[in-house]
Amino acid sequence: MFDRRVFNFAPGPATLPEEVLKQAAAEMLNWNGLGMGVMEVSHRGKPFMACYEEAIADLRELMNIPDSYAVLFLQGGAIGENAAIPMNLMPLAKNGPKADFIVTGIWTEKSAKEAAKYGQAHIAATSAATGFNSIPDQKDWQLSDDAAYVHICSNETVGGVEFQNVPKVAKPLVADVSSNILSRVWDINDFGVLFGGAQKNIGPAGLSIVVVRKDLLGHAMPITPMVWDWAKQAENDSMLNTPPTYGIYLAGLVFKWLKRQGGVAAMEQQNIAKSNLLYDCIDSSSLFTSKVDKNCRSRMNVTFYLNDESLNDAFVEGAAKLGLMNIKGHKSVGGMRASIYNAMPIAGVKALVEYMKEFERGC
Length: 363
Ligand SMILES: Cc1ncc(COP(=O)(O)O)c(C=O)c1O
Prior knowledge:
- The protein has 363 residues and is α/β, with parallel strands linked by helices.
- The chain folds into 2 domains: 24-260, Aspartate Aminotransferase, domain 2 (3-Layer(aba) Sandwich), CATH 3.40.640; 263-361, Alpha-Beta Complex (Aspartate Aminotransferase, domain 1), CATH 3.90.1150.
- It contains 9 helices and 14 strands.
- Strand 3 (98-103), helix 4 and strand 4 form a beta-alpha-beta unit.
- The chain is globular and about 60 Å long.
- The model has no long low-confidence stretch (mean pLDDT 97).
- The chain binds pyridoxal-5'-phosphate.
- The site of pyridoxal-5'-phosphate has 11 residues, from helix 3.
């Protein structure tokens, strides 16, 4: 039991900026002087439409998204989009539905498996042999001539493996950006589609974001459910069904917060500083190790292991006593994982590093 906020290193749903939560709390009962909360108003009414438009405009500004891309606020999470993507894009392949996958962890594995229900999911490269601790060199990717697109995950949340540069490919690049959207500067023109769930770097679970180049719209398979047909959603302001209004409102508050922090470039500098603190601590320790190749270590999900695994429980329990929560690694890989998204203050990372040093001294 805590009577204060803790440092929450959860991978998602994840910590949100305190300022944003305070504003949301203050507006819960009476939003914009309407005498009602934002959750209680019509999604088609003027006040909510203004909130929606502003959130889209702020996201466009933060990520420098040109008009040639549509921004959709949908539901179904990244897992839902794993099905929507092949349904929307695979028909663009010239010899029958097909896409290339660069498998760098469990999320791209899942994406390929889901896509295989709709067409050929060709594994053009995989780092499975290294236990998903690396990214295959692009020169070794076996890309197909007849694939509609190339699918990557820009940051594998479980393994802590992140592309440091957006790969340039001839086909539209489709990227699952669930866990590193808005954490580093990208040139949107390098992507055909960006997609992800909001519950890591943006807001509450329930909102998913799709940014899609407009020329890729309008090719969906006839079986595509209406709500996952991106062209239809784009024509209808993402409102073919009732959108996740509270998630959109909260995402909008996070976008304003990001703008006040100096935007994505400023966040990127902070994320470099925060992740360096942790990796420096790991690299200079004889108790902790990172298994991920140095050239693709994630700035968002820092995974590490104790050389003596019998100390794992004591390490996690000791951290929790200090209010350093949710540092246990994903069950499929074990070890530890500190998720340090945009909203994790540097003070949280410093507190964790201090604790790691203290724990090691006590061993
Ligand atoms: C990179 C990545 N992709 C996909 C997912 C699944 O997202 P959702 O639960 O929103 O469908 C996650 C969730 O943790 C993730 O980290």
